[in-house]
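#onboarding

Welcome to the new folks! Below is a worked example of what a typical request in this channel looks like: someone posts a single protein sequence, and someone else replies with the predicted structure as tokens. Don't worry about understanding the tokens yet, we'll cover that in week two.

Example request:
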Amino acid sequence: MIWQRSPGMRQEIAESGCYYLCIVYAVAKRRTMLPLSIAYISDTLYREVTERGYMNEDCYISKAREIMDHLGLRVEYLGKKNPEYQCKPDEFAIDHYWYAPNDWHHFVTEGYDPWGISTTATKGVMTSRRIFRPVS
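Example response:
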């Protein structure tokens, strides 16, 4: 498993890349041929998505759907939903958590926490869900 703080991970991803890594994980779960290595995620893919304007260099994601499409998974973005939203069988969510004492924000998806076990996801509150549906 690849984590935010895996050795060799680009500093920007190690600090703020949780949403980015959740996107990569969600696509890899559905596309078995995706080359998952730290070098690919930290260098090649990072450069490709920042050059295309899908993500800022500080890992702020502006176009999650386009990153998934770039990785070979066509999806429809169904929007940002409340924490109570239950995904339909053909949907998946990337969940946003907030930990108030430190004002930390963190994303997790489908049982994957880019930190492994983060304080934000375990002690914080889910504030929203970004919902996606694969399309053919």
